[in-house]
Amino acid sequence: MRAVKIAPSLLAADFGCLRDELARVEPVADWLHIDVMDGHFVPNVSFGIPVIESIRRLTALRFDCHLMTTNPDAFLPDLAAAGADLVTMHIEAMPDPTRASKLARDNGLGFGLVCNPGTPFAGVAPFLELCDVLLIMSVEPGFGGQGFIPEVLEKVQTAREWVEERGLPTDIEIDGGITPETARLAGDAGANVFVAGTAIFGAKDPSTAVADLRRAVEEK
Predict the structure, then answer these.
(1) Which tens digit of pLDDT belongs to each residue from 73-122?
(2) Is-catalytic flag, 175?
(3) What is d(CA 6, CA 78) in angstroms, rounded to the nearest whole number?
(4) Which of 6, 83, 119, 144 is the most buried (most CB within 10 A)?
């Protein structure tokens, strides 16, 4: 089994006290999921380069930067300089990500692709050998707090079978409506990286919430 990774989504944190919010999850989380939205690819605006650069000084967590933008490759050098570790970009915005993956590697970044709930697995399959991670959205991108779309579980299973059959090291990440219950379903389907926002930062004790998610997918 691939190592389970829990990635709290900063979009659900209290922006007025990010230092404290990060301190609550750093000891127990694996990655920090950072949604970069441009107000064009999705109808919302979120974190930019200055925020990423400032929080890089506050935590050693791996920065998993999810680019919900129309021109994701344009941000790669600046993201690398700001302290990003991994970038994922939507196949819907970058139908042929070959050049973008090389640019990410040239800037010392891990690289991955994202597909929306309505995008078939076939849209990303030809490019999985380029990827450290495939992020499968289980909600429509752009806003937190949405309900999990169970139909994506079939896509998760297909993706896991694909990478295993080909011996690829690609992580399968899931994002949207993740709770202990839906994380267990996604883990059973083949996901091993779990992005959760409200379920972690909306909990009374975020560290306990991370532990609950991890236990849900590790205990069979």
Answers:
(1) 999 999 999 999 999 999 999 999 999 999 999 999 999 999 999 999 99
(2) yes
(3) 25
(4) 6
Q: Which of 30, 35, 64, 212 is catalytic?
A: 35
- Judge if pTM exceeds 0.90: yes
pLDDT at 146: 80
Query: Which has the closest alpha carbon to 124: 154, 151, 152, 92?
Result: 92
Active-site annotation holder among 64, 73, 175, 212:
175
What average pLDDT does this structure show over 132-151? 90
